Structure formats: structure tokens, C-alpha cells
User: Fold Uronate isomerase from Tessaracoccus defluvii.
Amino acid sequence: MTRLELHPDRLLPADPALRDVARSIYESVRDLPIISPHGHVPVSWLADDAPFTDPTSLLLSPDHYIMRILHANGERLEDLGAGGTPLDAEQSRAAFRTLCAHWGEFAGTPVKLWFEAQLVEIFGIDLLPGPDTADAIYDTVAAQLATDAFRPRALYERFGIELLATTDDPCDPLADHARLAADPTWHGRVVPTFRPDHYLEPARAGWNALIDTLGGVSGVDVDSYAGWVAAMEDRRAYFRRHGAISTDHAHLDARMEPLPADVAEALYAAARAGRISADDGATLRRHMLFEQARMAVDDGLVMTLHPASLRNHHPATFERFGPDVGADIPISVEYTRALAPALGAFGTSPNFRLVLFTMDETVYSRELAPLAGFYPSVFVGVPWWFLDAPDTMRRFREAVTETAGFTRTSGFIDDTRAFLSIPARHDVSRRVDAGYLARLVAEHRLTVDEAHAAAHTLVADNPRKAFL
Amino acid sequence: MTRLELHPDRLLPADPALRDVARSIYESVRDLPIISPHGHVPVSWLADDAPFTDPTSLLLSPDHYIMRILHANGERLEDLGAGGTPLDAEQSRAAFRTLCAHWGEFAGTPVKLWFEAQLVEIFGIDLLPGPDTADAIYDTVAAQLATDAFRPRALYERFGIELLATTDDPCDPLADHARLAADPTWHGRVVPTFRPDHYLEPARAGWNALIDTLGGVSGVDVDSYAGWVAAMEDRRAYFRRHGAISTDHAHLDARMEPLPADVAEALYAAARAGRISADDGATLRRHMLFEQARMAVDDGLVMTLHPASLRNHHPATFERFGPDVGADIPISVEYTRALAPALGAFGTSPNFRLVLFTMDETVYSRELAPLAGFYPSVFVGVPWWFLDAPDTMRRFREAVTETAGFTRTSGFIDDTRAFLSIPARHDVSRRVDAGYLARLVAEHRLTVDEAHAAAHTLVADNPRKAFL
Amino acid sequence: MTRLELHPDRLLPADPALRDVARSIYESVRDLPIISPHGHVPVSWLADDAPFTDPTSLLLSPDHYIMRILHANGERLEDLGAGGTPLDAEQSRAAFRTLCAHWGEFAGTPVKLWFEAQLVEIFGIDLLPGPDTADAIYDTVAAQLATDAFRPRALYERFGIELLATTDDPCDPLADHARLAADPTWHGRVVPTFRPDHYLEPARAGWNALIDTLGGVSGVDVDSYAGWVAAMEDRRAYFRRHGAISTDHAHLDARMEPLPADVAEALYAAARAGRISADDGATLRRHMLFEQARMAVDDGLVMTLHPASLRNHHPATFERFGPDVGADIPISVEYTRALAPALGAFGTSPNFRLVLFTMDETVYSRELAPLAGFYPSVFVGVPWWFLDAPDTMRRFREAVTETAGFTRTSGFIDDTRAFLSIPARHDVSRRVDAGYLARLVAEHRLTVDEAHAAAHTLVADNPRKAFL
Assistant:
């Protein structure tokens, strides 16, 4: 068995000329609080504060990063607990053995970094996952999960989290958020995020039922387009009252294009009548997204865009397991033209903040850095989903900084369902940024003091400026 | 005259912290057999085993990499033997002098690396190409080519080739392949590859004649669409019986989109009647490519895609010299949407293997790694044509590994007509991958053992898994 | 106050294995003359040779790189003298204080490198810009600007400029150019550049008035399409007689597509009648651009393309401040298909030179290097606008060299209105290229001699071959 160790200098540049500088920069930000303004941890975990039941349902089944790599390497999703497939105790253990048996196939991916950091730093395990160590790891994790120190709130505190955002349906009553916020024994901050994607896709199956629900929940008559606007504004206000700081949007493109009022009304009426074409649905969706931007100027909720993922690429997998099992595949994205109407209208509005994420690296230097390098409202979202890995994060800084500097990026987001991986994800980001800054120092492009200041900007200032 | 030397550490990272690790990784895979599942060496060379006639027709004229750089720097293709232009002895020597006179213009390109490695390692020459050394190099090469040790089969053995694939027309009788395979004195493995591009472009001039030939060769009536399907299946089976392991496809896009049977039949009839439009031709081609995928599931031939090259960009050059003289220019490519129908149908079929190559680096992290990171049938093709160079290979690993790991790439392919460059091309790939892995070790992202295992995966396991 | 110093090894690789080699390469080209074949310095500065009036109007207000970063970080363009907003003495000083107060936000951008190099090397200032140093810097710069040694011609000589190109309207009488060239006390070389963008956009507001002017200036009846051609040829000849070496073109795409004569004539007539659609306008523009290529073959003016910037992205800013204040945002670009007609017609013409610039890095390896690696007429433009920064320049070399070598790129262009930044910009380019070459040496891909030769090619030979 190979002993599992975390090298204190992991992910820092190997070059001795850089490593000392990088270590000093990293150490200056290592222990700063975690601000996590976009993610998918269930608020109920913290509201209930119940112990986690087993290693597989906590560490494996909810994580589509792990799921898809095991699937690509020949495993069946049903054996891993995908899509809520229930696993009994023996199946949970078997799934965990499967993961460990495939551990070599995670080499080179950030999953290896995050997972091994969890084992060492959270569970104190020094065994490399593998066929021979699977049971020992499983048992050690399971035993600790049963203790109070590993209940959700204890981990939240131990992780040094300052803010954690969830992702929520606009009609969600946010009861768990309210319950948690009202709990006098709770001292953290968990906020909801308004995610109206399906409500903005009028040609999508089920849209009318969603809008009916929206009308019901908001108490607004949504038969007219004006009603849709009013109901949306009502729910955004409800989210704000429950602590929300942002809205999140993921469609096939980033276009926000206003329609004349009568056209919007006519398309809305057609959609409510169930007679809207796919093209008209996209047209109305782009108008509705523009309206979300307009509402953001009014209510101050930060708007984040995550476009251009072709969801559920494999229909048979979706039918059996539902979304979020690793079968979403990126497509190219365009921002410059797509955002021209909205930025023309709101780009210099002091109350508007727009954070632009991408899975298409080509837009970093071509579109996002130039946009954030002119518009005070625009922030370049840091690498996210698929790109949240060390080499990609380095490419991101190299592509964005020379045009936009350090002050125009969003701060790291972990975007994860894997609660226990949050510290490791932020730590990877801090290490990679420290390495990038160390190179600029070693090339005499920044002084050591300037690099330390930039590191603080990236970790501490930017997420506050973009989100808080 | 500068002495030509190959440094033993060439292409390994310069950083001393990395180089020792890189060297050890490289040495562990340096001498593994060469598996070359896609290339353009004529099988007749090995079937006939006749001595090569002269340096120019072996090393220069067939190699469009060399040809295009000389052309860009002012030389005339006819003087270089392009497109089968016959060169007499003096002209061959003159062409070789031209190459040597321009040697400085190859600096920074992989041609320099491959060619110099051939001179040193195959011919034992220590003269840097230049005006003063051209004749001496020419004469030394020519003298050795006349000896038995430099006949094709001797070189095949010396190069340590385990498998070499050719590229062949579906109607090719594969007589040379059969002759070689039947030769009891031959112990290597050369396999044909089924390349039906022109048979899948119904709007292309000459298509009907090709289909007539296809019908004749297969003995199937190709007047109906069903006949086209049956004839294709027949020829694929013929290729399989002659050892083929894969089919190769190069069109302007990667789309595979099935048509309803009646639509396919109607378009096929229109095409056979010579009345199909360019757009309908593309539609039918995309259907036919989907059919090739369906056949691949049935017969197990690996499917490789090489799309998005605008062939013969300069018409006057094409008219005079034909294809493959260096005037093919890449365009952007899209895979996520293009492959959704085929992967929806066959993506998890155990019998399906699809290897995706590109000349558009943007798809590595955005599309190919996510696809290969979910679908067990999809492999990311390693850098090929235009991208088969050290820095690009490094970018490839950096773009793909973090999402797909090491097990989902294809193994190196040399894709070359330049037989003598094959060892150097594979060697460059092994060196670059060793350097990449050494960095991951130095950054404590892999242990040394894990990096050695990854190197073996890349060189030995992946080509077998993807192709054999 | 932090002392401002320029490290002699700045921008060279930190790795000691590379730095010595890089320094030696850099030193071999550091003092070679500056050839600046594309830029925006007003010729009147050199023709008049009047002292510069104040630091702000020289160093800040004309530079959209600085302007946009200050704007993104919350400053108002009117306070910075944007778009010719007049600033009195106190406002100029206030604007300069604003710049210095925001200096930390320029960290990581090339503006920091260029500006600090100007302070140290031109003005001998060793104060880091900041709130506490703004006035001292301002006063020191102002005092020196009033002296003869800082008048434009003295600086031109001190900078070691061999050639400087301006950018000019086709109807410009070039009077300042003529006056400067005729001045017997002037020994430099400043040449105009023919920039006909607005004359090639028939659907653009104001086009007819421009064409009327063109007719008037050239003395050619422009009522017919033939007249447009003759007038253009006349003005190109006029520019050539005044020393022009190139024409420059910036449209939304790079397409050059000839129309049949009757179609061109009909569209031209419609445009002159004020009745052309946007689509037809684009069609006619692409024809007119093809005609510019045809004229280039005839008159030998080098053709440079700078496509795919969406100008004036923020309409309110444009209305108030006009163009060139930092609100132009790139879009993706396509060259392979766009240039097929023109390169098919002229690509191997000995008299044709076409330099292709981009703000979309994806075309470097995919399209530009392959085009310049086949066509003797095509040169890859070096990183320009947004991309003229150290890491991007390095990516450019890594993306282009392996396909096109060192001889097919354009030589550096500074493209700037900021006259005093020209030496620093060329210096950054030379340093970055030296670092790239040093790595190739350290990886044994080039000998030291080959790297020195390549550096000379990049700095001295390429601009002459592409432009002179």
C-alpha cells in the first residue's frame, strides 16, 4: 500500500526560483475565510444538522465529476447511486470499492486532488485509494461521520466558511433557509440563489405548469406578460428578503435581447396557449433574460451567467437517471454581441453587477477580459465546471489578467454538491493563483508587495466586490 | 560547418527540478514498440521490399510538411517533385540542395526535429543541413539506401514497429496487403484502413462513377439506397477480412445525422440521377456518416474522424499538382451537437469506439475531453496534422487531462507518408508526454510511480484499447 | 514611497537555466532600430516639432488602454480628457492624480510595464505612481517636456526609430507628411497608411458624403462603380507618392469576395442612391475589399487586415466621447474561407503581401500559421491590440512557430497613439521573444546560434520583408 501524503508545496511551481515566493504568497491567503457565492449544497444539511449516513452517499453519488469518469471507464451509473438510485449498505460499500479500484483513472484530474485532500485533511487518512484500501477507508470515514465533529455545522465552522450560497427554484418557499436563519444556535450564513432557468424557456415542455405555479406562489395573475414580470419581481423580492445576493442563469446562449412590448406580449400569449415555436421560445427567453438584467438594476441582485452547456447529451441516461450525472457537454459561446443590448442599457449603471462564467476558454482573452476591462458592471467569472483545475486556472489568469488586471474577476466559486470538497477546491485555487503571481514576481513584472496585494484582491476583495 | 548532434535530453523540460524525473519517465517508455494505427505509408513498399531509389523521392517529395514550408519561403513545387512531378538524378539532387539551403526556415518546426533525428539516428550523419553540406548528406543517404539494411522491411524491424496502418480506398482490392500478409518471410503487421470519404459526398463531382465502381467491386446493385448500404457493408467486411481495424473519415464537419428512410432513399435517388444540390448532398453525407457509425457498432471497426480541413485551398496548385502538397487549411469544428445523434444512439454500446481528432485546438477542453470523460466509446485523438509538435502536444495534455484523465486518449498516431520519420515522431511524443508528467510530479500532483504508470498508459495501453 | 526600478532581466524567464541564454539573445537585438509600420501617432507632432504641453494630454488622454481600465474601475471618462474633452491645468493634474491613485489596478497589465518604463527610461523618475507621488511625477514630467530634448523629433531620434507609419483617411491631403518630408533638417522617415474602412461600407450612414469627397479629391466621377475603382486607385497612387507602404483594413469580418461586374455595379448604384440594405452593403464591402487586394497586386502596397472588433460597444459612451476610448470589444474571426477567393487569385503573386492580424487567438494555430505556412504572400501579424502583452506574445510564438517557423511573421507593430510608449512596447516584444527562444535552446530544439539568428529574423528581417 502506498502511503497517501499531501505535500505542503503541492501545486506550487517546481522551479526553486518561484517556489519560495509562491509559498509566501500562498501562506498569506491560505487561511482567509471561504466565500462561496455559487454552489449546490442542500441547505437542509445545515438546517437539520443531522449526521451524514455513509461515505458513498456523501462523497460519491452526488458528485457528477466522479460519476462521469467512472462511467467513461466502464462502470454503470446505477451501481454508483446515480440519480437517487437507492443503495443498501452492501451496495454503498461496493460502490466505494469501485471508486477506489478505478483510482488510477483519476490521475491528472482535480478530483484526485480534492478527494485525497479530503481524506487526509478532514478524515486524517493516509491510505491511497485502491482495491486493497477501499474497505479501510470506507470504515474510517463512516466511523467519523457518525461523530458530532463531522456533522454539517461542525464542518461548516471547521472549514472557515463565511458565506455559502445554495441554488433554488424561484417558487421554493425557502423554508429551510428561514429555519436555519432563525436558529439562534447557528452563526453562519447560508443564502439562497434565484435560478429561474426553466421559467424563462417558454417552448420547453412543462413551462406552462411552472408559470401556473409561479402565479400561485406569488399571488399574481400570470395570464398576461405584465403578470409574468410582476410575479418574477415578487419572487426576486422574496428571495432578497431571505438573504439572496444573486440570480443565476444557464441557457444555451448568453443573448439578452429586448423585444417591443407588444411583441413580448404576443409571444407570451402564444406560449401560455401552448403554441410557441422553438425559435420564438428562444426569442422570448432572450427578452426575459434582458428583463432579469433590468430587474437586477432595480433590486441589486447580482446576475451570474453560466451559458452554453448542452444538458443531458445522452438521452437514455437522462431518462433513467435524470440530470446532473456528468452528461452535460459544453458548446462554444459568444458574449460580445449577445450582451451588447443589455450592456448598452445597463453596463454603466452603478447598481448592476454581471458575472460571466464560461466553459469555453476562447472567450477569456477575446471577449470577457475586454468587456470587464471597460464596463464597471462586468466581472469575469473564474474557472468553473470542467475548468476548475490547476492548469486551466493558470491559463485563465494568463488569458485575463493582461487585459483586465486583478480587480475585474469574480473570486473563486466552488459550484459543488460535494460539501466536503469545498475547502480543497478553494485551496487549489489559492495555490494556483499564488504560483501565477510568483512567476510575475520572478519575471520582475510585479514586486513581492504588489503580488501579495494582488493575492489578497483575488481571495478577499473580489468576491465581496462582485457579490456582497 | 556546424556539427549536427542530438542531445539525449532534447525536448525534456530545461528546469533541473523536472529534467531528472522526465528522463526517468521517458526512458521507461522510449523503447516500447511503435503502434501506428493511422498513416499513409504505401503498403507496396513493404510488400515489394525494393530498395529506395534516392533521398529526394523518399525524404522530400512525399512530405507535404516540408513541401509547404519551402513553398511559403519562395520555392516552386515543381522543382521539389510535388504531385509526382518526375525528377531526374540532377533534379533530385537540386531539390535536396534547395531543402538544405532553406534549412534555417525550418527552425522551430517539428520538421527540423524529425529530419535531423533521421539523419543522425538512421543514417549516422553528423552534418547540419545547409548549402555546404547538401551534397555530402545526399550522397551518404543515397549510398546507404542502396544497401540491404535500408530496405523497407529491414527498417520496419529496426524501427520496432508492432503495427502499421495504411489508408485505402474502399474499392481497393488490397492485393498488396494480401501479398504481404501471405509472405512467410514477413513477420510484421500492416493493416489497411477503410477511407470512404469520396463515396459519402453525393454532390461531389465524380460521385456517381465511384458508386458505380463500388457496385461493381462489391457485386451489389447500388441503384437503391439499400444497395449503397449493402455495398458499404460488403466492403467493410472485405477490409476486416484483410486485417483492417478502423475506418477513417474526413469531411468539412463532424455531423452524423440520421434521416428517415424515405428521405434518405429520395436523396440517394436524386444523387444517383445527378440532380442533388450541395446542401442536400451534405445532408445525405451526414446521414451516410451516421450509417458508418451504425455499421461500426455491428462490425467492430473503430471509427476515426478527422474533420474540418478545407482541402486544396489554392485551386491553381491543385490543378497542377493534385492534393496533399501542403495547401489544406483547417477551419473551426464543432463536435458536441454534431455527435449528439450518433452518441445518443451508440455512445454506450460496448462494441463502439470513436476516436475524435482535430486541427482546432479549441475543442480539446471544451468538447472532446468532456465527451470522452463521459462516453466509454469516445477517445480523444492525440495531436495530429499541424498540431503534432512539441508545444502543441503539451497544450493538448494540459487541455484534456484535467477533464478526461490519461485513459481516454487514443495513443499517438504519426499520420505520415514519410516512413523514415515514424520513429522520430513517436519519440517526440514520448518525450513531450514525459515532460508533462514530470511537471505534475514536481508539483506534487502525481507521485513518481503514478507518473510512470501514466506514461505506460499513454504509450502502450491507450492505442491498444482504442484500436486493437 | 516605493522606489521604482526596472530590473535589467525583467520579462526574461526566471529559470536560471534559461535566463542567461535569454539575456544573451535579448542583448543581441535590444538596440536594433525600431521599425513601426502600423501606428497612430499624429504626423503633425513631428512636422511641427512643438513641445508637448502637459503630461496628461500626452500620456493619459490619448491612450485607450489606460482609459478603459480607469473606467472599468469606476472613473468617469470626462474627467480623464476622453474624446478631446478639454482639461484645464488643474483638471489635467487631477486626471493624472486619478491615474496614479488607481495604479494598483494596472498590476498584471502591459500598461504598467510600458508606463513605468517611460518614467524610468525617458524621464529618469524613480517613484512608483501612487497617491503620494502623483504630483512629483507630474511636475517632473512637465518640466522635462518643456525642454528641447523632449520635443518630438528629439525623442524620435533618441528612440532609435527607423520608420514610423501613421494611419490616414484616403482623402487626407497628407500635407503634414509632405511638409515633414520636405524639411531638410529632418532625417527620419514617417509614412502615411491608406485606411479606407469607411469608404468600403456602403450601408453605413455618411458613406455617400465620403464618396462625394473621394470624387472631389481625386477628380474622378464616382457616380459609377468604375469611378469608385478609379478614384481609389488614384488615392492609393497619391499615398504611394507620399511614401505609403501599406493599406490597413478593419471590418467586422475578413471576407474578400468578388462579385460579377454587373452585380457590383448594380449594388454600387443602389448604394449611391441611398437604397442599399445592410446585407447588400456587406456584400459590396467584401467585393470592394477584394478589389483592394487586386489593387495591391498592381501597386505593391502591403495589405494589412485587422478585423472583428465590435466598435463602440457602449452607445452612450460613443455619443458623448466618440471612438477610441476603450469600448471596442473583439468578436471571433474566420480567415480560411474568408480569404479563399483572394488567395486563390493572388496568393502566389510575387507582388502581393497580406499581413493578417487578430484579436481572436484561436486562429493562430488553426488558420493563420497554416495559411502563412503555404502562401508566400501571407504573413502572420504579431500580437496587436489587447494581445500585445507578455504572456499573450509567448502564446502567439508557441501557437504559430511550430507550423510556420520564424520567417512568416510580420515583425512587431506597436499600433499606438502613445508616442512615448513605443520604445517600451518594442522592448517588451524583444524580451518575450528572447525568452521563448531561450526555452527552445534549453530544450535542445535550437542551438544558441540558431536562436540568435531567429531573434535577428524576428526583429530585423521580418518587418522589412513584410513591409519594406
Notes: The CA atoms of residues 252 and 308 of chain C lie 4 Å apart. The longest helix of chain C spans residues 278-299. Chain C is about 50% helix and 5% strand. The two ends of chain C are 47 Å apart (CA to CA).
